[in-house]
Fold:
Amino acid sequence: MKVGIIDYGVGNLGSIARALEQLRVSPILVDRAIDLHGKDALILPGVGNFTDCMQILLKGGWVNVIKDEVHGYDRPLLGICLGMQLLADLGVEGAIDPRVGTAGLGLIPGRVVNLATEGCSLRVPHVGWNSIATSDSKSSLFHGIADGTDFYFVHSYVFRPDQQQSVLAEAVYDIPFAASVGLRKVWGTQFHPEKSSRAGMQLLRNFLFNQQC
Amino acid sequence: MLKVRVIPTLLWKQFGLVKGTRFDSWRRVGPVLPAIKVYNQRDVDELVLVDITANTTGEPPDCESIVDFSQECFVPFAVGGGVTSIDQVQQLLRSGADKIVLNTAAYRSPSLVTDIACRYGTQCVVASIDARHNPGGGWTCYSHSGSCDTGREVVTWARELEDRGAGEILITSIDNDGMMEGYDLALIQAVSQSVKVPVIASGGAGTYQHMIEAVQQSGASAVAAASMFHFTEQTPAGAKEAMRQACIPVRLNFVTTP
Structure:
């Protein structure tokens, strides 16, 4: 099984690649959009700022290629942290006009907004191990993962999906927010599975081997 | 709710891990990579790795080794020792570090704390303070692995580090380090009461009860230990179970459900 990790120049992909190797799949760091095709599944990481990352994805020709893979080839895609946020229609972080926002990949309808402006009165960024609760119609992404399991979060913005059924798991940091989203074969985790020890490994295993539409 | 973390501290000197007492009398513990693998198998909350020779030799951080170590690390990985510039920070982060531990460099150029926080976020900066108890009361900060008196008072310095953008503060008692007789609870309390950022208690843990005290009596958000995990049968998982029984919110080891 070949898993393409979209390597558009942000952040370290060593631990995500190594985590996939432990699950006995071959991670392929793909650093040119034209090489993305032909993988069995795709991972979209992301660190930094929504607007900056979208600009890099646009400049590198990634946006259309990613959409083609998802819509044209029904390729499973997992966005991690900012990579999950980029799945949204819009994000306000770093946008020239925050009221308008920056266009995202538009793979899962929703907006990405700041934790503080959503009413969170605790320290932002939200950093650390926090527990999640899965939605009632438990997604295959969380197979074998009990409610209350902790995952590792580092973020200041949250994904607000238009449709509640896109929320696969919630966490609470003063306010509830989407810890994971999903729509058909597109998934996202606000937390870092590659830094969430065994629980994260189980989630990656589910993404790779346990997908149900 | 965020969990209280238990963090093994790995001190790295030249070719392997070491552990001393009161920042001296170093004992060899073993090679780095197997230790990182073992702690990962044991499902620890986070790892801190500090190169304790880098700031005395003037060598830049060994990013090649950090690449190897971080690939085996599936929990947050804080790396420090000899970091003096924002370029080195960038290289370490690219090599797989999740957080940078700053100590000596923060005294020389406090603006480095702010620079890292602005570019990579406050969650990237762990400000480390090594403090010694004054005979007349209070504590003084020491740089260069505890060898240089900076003349700075610990609470004032902790507040300044927070103001400059430190995301957490790792406070180590030099007096208690390696003694395994308990943390300097008064020192940890003095720091945790004076800053809002999470405080990691370090220096002196010898039993699970010491860790419980650091959280319940001194307000630590995380407890670090080295000797206790290197030289006794006690484990991070055991520590968390003891803390859970003491009603402290901890992340328990993951077990898949059917």
Remarks:
- Chain B is about 35% helix and 25% strand.
- The first helix of chain B runs from residue 32 to 41.
